Known about the structure:
homodimer; alpha/beta; 19 strands; Aldehyde Dehydrogenase, Chain A, domain 2; seven-stranded mixed sheet
Amino acid sequence: MTTATTTSATELDALASAAAAAAPVWRAADAATRASWLRAAADALDAHVDELVAVADEETRLGETRLRGEVGRTTGQLRLFATVVEEGSYLELTVDDADPSAVPPRPELRRLLVGVGPVAVFSASNFPFAFSVAGGDTSSALAAGNPVIVKAHSGHPRLSQRTAEIVAGALVDAGAPEGSLALVTGREAGNVLVQHPLIRAAGFTGSLGGGRALFDLAAGRPDPIPFYGELGSLNPVVITRAAVAARGEILAQGLVGSFTLGVGQFCTKPGVVFVPEGAGFEGLVAGFATGAAGGPLLTDRITEAFPSGIEHLESDPSVAVVAQGLPAEPGSARPVVLSTDAASVAARPDTLLEECFGPVTLLARYSSAEELHAALQAVPGSLTATLHAEASDDVTAVVEVLARKAGRVLFSGWPTGVAVTWSQQHGGPWPATTSLHTSVGATAIRRFLRPVVYQDAPAALLPDVLRDESLAALPHRRNGVLRVP
Amino acid sequence: MTTATTTSATELDALASAAAAAAPVWRAADAATRASWLRAAADALDAHVDELVAVADEETRLGETRLRGEVGRTTGQLRLFATVVEEGSYLELTVDDADPSAVPPRPELRRLLVGVGPVAVFSASNFPFAFSVAGGDTSSALAAGNPVIVKAHSGHPRLSQRTAEIVAGALVDAGAPEGSLALVTGREAGNVLVQHPLIRAAGFTGSLGGGRALFDLAAGRPDPIPFYGELGSLNPVVITRAAVAARGEILAQGLVGSFTLGVGQFCTKPGVVFVPEGAGFEGLVAGFATGAAGGPLLTDRITEAFPSGIEHLESDPSVAVVAQGLPAEPGSARPVVLSTDAASVAARPDTLLEECFGPVTLLARYSSAEELHAALQAVPGSLTATLHAEASDDVTAVVEVLARKAGRVLFSGWPTGVAVTWSQQHGGPWPATTSLHTSVGATAIRRFLRPVVYQDAPAALLPDVLRDESLAALPHRRNGVLRVP
């Protein structure tokens, strides 16, 4: 049993005021200091990993192995952002020296990015660590120099509370101000949070419906704020005839592993797979899928939605069941592979291309490049798009479409698994995300920064990093020329 | 007389389809090609400067000198963006090599930014060249690799039409595809444009009311798109007692020059000036303002709004008239300097801090740092904030507030005049702009780009710029290390 306390508007006001008071301290903290705060948060999570994983497993049933791995990913994110802060490119330091001979005379301009102010983070059901209280949105917002108020996910309230205590405590112990990280609970508190005058941006990972509602609240404010939502993704996969011929069995095994990973509850789960008609790929998939295990889903709501999502797909006359996985215990989800054809996908995308959270994937047979292309055009924006082809295939046009539909285009791999690195892109055209940014990887920090330029400022009144002596040690552009220390 | 043709929804559909067809060509064009298209547009404007300036002067009455200068600024913007494209940093090329020893094994990731697709640009009344058909939004959108559809401003329809013909023709002559630049007219066409499924982002410069309406349409779409609006700005100025003592006359002259420049119709016009109580600054300003000339305003709507804006300010009991400029001809605007006190500003910001387009500024007397600080807190987000102080002043706290309120903080200068350079920032907290970006300067290009990452892609299927041989010649990050060719 969990006690569902709800944060009141008055309590939220106090938390927002504390965050606003902490914001100038975060903004002014130098790179070494801010990085040390992020690392202190990571160290504290590591130190409490046994306790946290136990609570997380009780609440999410994701299992100890996965959850320990996720803590490692979460602390890795915090440490990556500490490195990003120290490296300094994220500041986009740019200087144009004065040019009195220009017409009109050009002043000196010194530009940098600074934190936007307190950030709201809505945590996710499916990543109780890596996209929750101390997850990617929080790490990148803190790294940008902003206090964070997290809306706890109702699927793991005790873990959220304990994580917040540990991280907030570690930040303060490391010298960060009170108000650096706070937690609110309850759906209404989330609605108030995204509309609170002191909140300057929001990050969200969750359902299309919930995300859209919050996006509308953020956009409807008297002073709209950026809302970075990661809302849903079908993650199309295209497999060519030559690829099936060359390594059909490996591909079938990989697909089953990917769509059942985490009981199909990854935002990068392959939801629709375009397969060549008559190449025997469905049979290969069935062979592996019948042995695949399901498991308990994250929340009661997801558990209830899974069978109705499958029913929705099966309501299309073109859809057949290819295979079912191992029988599941009551309350658990059994893997399912469905099939249709590409022409039906192109004709009825509203039915056949609706995301269904859980261990299900839809194989869509295509018999020509034209049929494939027409179906791909109907696929909504996604986080990822995957191609399995051979060197002999002419896939230039397919790659062009996939790169328009998704933020990450994979070759010969599976989309589940998102490396947290400098170059990662986790975001794509609507409804994958609401923005032109990523929520995973180093550049996620850009979402929570705004540019400020100082014109003809005396050196003493410039932010430290914009003074000549600091510039020399940091990546910066001067008079149009990018310089690396 | 102008004929007010209006673009129908059917016509707009055809233009949007043409833009969408042109988008892949723009996206795929290499740097040299895209830069040559931008320079061809600039050359064509230069070649037609006499004709264009004559039409512009008939429609806007801004005068030949100003308009010739603005054409130069406009072609300069196009050429700057050609340089930005060639320089290549805007692509944010980022590569992480594969690491098979990582747990889990890390794939190769290669990231770049690509054009979002067709962009809608809403042109401004007050910059018939530099923020209109071929202005900053259009230049940066084209540079990012996107076709553009411009909504003409009703204040200069013939100029818009002729500029569009010249630029669209020059682009096609230079080898760019048909559909690269198109024009629509009529308010309803603008509303349809920002909601058109093929439009992927919008740029806007104009009033808070008009911008908010379009922002709401963009955010309310089934698939919301980014709307980059520059909506209104009060551009606060703070002058210290020591600055008045040291150079009061120069400051008064500078202020009068700035608030009357372009008949007070710049988005960076200083709208409120905090001046030390009892330092005699009002008298100095009055001395210069009484000799200042006004002139005709841009449109009938602005002409009507100017006196009612002044009446609104004068409705506050604290407000007095400090000076009026030279009498204006009927239909022209006469410069006005008003005064109030900082305590009234803090108490009644809704009345005293409303932007009034035209040659008027409000002097707000402060008698203590506390009074100044309280009033500054009430100032809405602005494009600029200006400080005039002496080295002996302790202004750290003031600068901190100004940098939170504005995207450009000026020292010992005046905000009118916006250099188009690598470091410029023209944007600020709401209602100055809707975004964390700039609409002037090199980084304006970032608004119309989205990230795409290629995972484990064969070299032949990568975009050219992401291949190893191209990377060597471009700024890029590899395994976390920024490299400059």
